[in-house]
UniProtKB/TrEMBL annotation:
SUPFAM superfamilies: Nudix. Residues 88-108 have a biased composition (Basic and acidic residues). Residues 76-108, 378-398 are annotated as: Disordered. This is Uridine diphosphate glucose pyrophosphatase NUDT22. CDD domains: NUDIX_Hydrolase (cd02883). Its cofactor is Mg(2+). It comes from Gymnodraco acuticeps (Antarctic dragonfish).
């Protein structure tokens, strides 16, 4: 099934999804957006105009997804097919300061993709486990490509490393959503060898929330949200750097947040816990009723120039009737949606582009549904799917 609005950058079907202990992050200013005075002036102009029309908008620091590394464990020779209109590139590692010799050494032990075009106690327990994972051994950067992973039964548990910098919501609206985005992509490719170098690319999160009676929760977006007003979505938002700062006892304003204030383990914890916080705030479900988030993969929203979103599966101990009652009582972010809709698991698994409901889904929900159909995270965990592999393809989130 193909939909021009969305594609999958990565899925974790080989492992039925990844738990927090199987994910780590690498943080660096190298992974920030490339700045340019003319682009920055344009961002300010776009922001001023948007806020004048939508005064409820506010800026905030976000994590920027630059690239990812995925271990070769248990993955058997996947082929990754990019969309036909997108050129591939193998230069994404160059902007990280790698020399040809260092890249040659790296390629002996890992596979390189270019992809630039293309509750609370369990949370704490997973956070403590993050430091125990081993280093990933295959590299991906954001653009389409084909690749092969070797399979070795003696490999350590699979591990995903996300390479993150910082960006902000204002930069997102002024780059990914800019009328000049095509020009920004061309400049990024020409000047930095990376079509996404000048784009904000904030990492979103979303949750496929499944109730105790097998219903998947969708919410209808308010017309007062910045994107996809009136369409059906899953609960979601962003992991917040300011939350990490608060955990670390750093009292700073959004504009002062920098990469060197971040720490790896708290960032991973925020990535996983933020999806639960969004479910709590948007659907009004207490954290104690939510299961451990399972990362299904990363989807790309092409209506916003390929913005990435990490999509999770989250189980709920409440029934759909109980969830409906809590929703209508209203949560902290009740203003972001106007209705709640329930779909059976089977119906979600059968959704495709020919389904009438598909047209009502916003791109982030489409990406999450595609990942849910691919990963099947609510199947028996620990049983690997022999024909499932991580993928890397173009077309881009929330």
């Amino acid at each position: 099934m193909t939909d021009s609005e969305v594609s999958l950058l990565l899925h974790c079907a080989a492992w039925r999804g990844l738990l927090q202990a199987q994910v780590q992050v690498e943080l660096s200013e190298r992974f920030n957006r490339q700045t340019d005075p003319a682009v920055d002036r344009h961002i300010e102009e776009v922001w001023t105009e948007r806020v004048s029309k939508e005064p409820w908008l506010f800026n905030g620091s976000k994590f920027r997804l630059h690239s990812f590394c995925l271990s070769s464990s248990s993955v058997s020779h996947p082929a990754c097919t990019p969309p036909p209109h997108t050129p591939s590139s193998d230069r994404a590692e160059e902007q990280q300061g790698d020399t040809p010799h260092s890249r040659q050494r790296m390629e002996k032990s890992c596979i390189t993709h270019s992809l630039h075009d293309a509750a609370q106690s369990s949370l704490d327990r997973r956070s403590r486990a993050v430091n125990q994972v081993e280093s990933a051994d295959s590299v991906s950067a954001l653009s389409p490509a084909s690749s092969t992973f070797s399979k070795n039964a003696d490999d350590p548990e699979p591990l995903l490393t996300l390479r993150l910098g910082l960006t902000c919501y204002k930069d997102y609206l002024g780059t990914n959503w800019s009328c000049r985005v095509a020009e920004l992509r061309k400049r990024g490719e020409a000047e930095f060898g990376d079509a996404l170098a000048l784009l904000a690319q904030p990492l979103g999160v979303g949750g496929v929330l499944c109730t105790a009676d097998g219903q998947v929760v969708l919410i209808r977006r308010s017309q007062k949200v910045a994107e996809a007003g009136g369409l059906l979505d899953i609960p979601g938002g962003h992991p917040e750097p300011k939350v990490v700062c608060a955990w670390l006892g750093q009292a700073v304003c959004e504009e002062q947040i920098s990469v060197d204030m971040m720490q790896q383990r708290p960032v991973v914890s925020e990535l996983f816990s933020s999806v639960c916080a969004e479910i709590r705030d948007e659907v009004n479900i207490p954290l104690s009723s939510l299961g451990e988030p399972v990362l299904m993969g990363i989807a790309l929203n092409h209506t916003s120039a390929g913005r990435p979103s990490a999509e999770f599966y989250v189980s709920c101990s409440l029934t759909s009737d109980e969830v409906r009652k809590l929703y209508w009582k209203g949560g902290a972010e009740a203003h972001e949606s106007t209705d709640i809709v329930f779909l059976g698991r089977t119906e979600v698994l059968q959704l495709d582009i020919s389904s009438p409901l598909w047209a009502e889904l916003c791109p982030s929900a489409k990406g999450a549904v595609l990942l849910y159909q691919t990963v099947r995270p609510d199947s028996a965990r620990g049983q690997r799917q022999p024909d499932a592999q991580p993928i890397a393809s173009e077309k881009r989130s929330r």
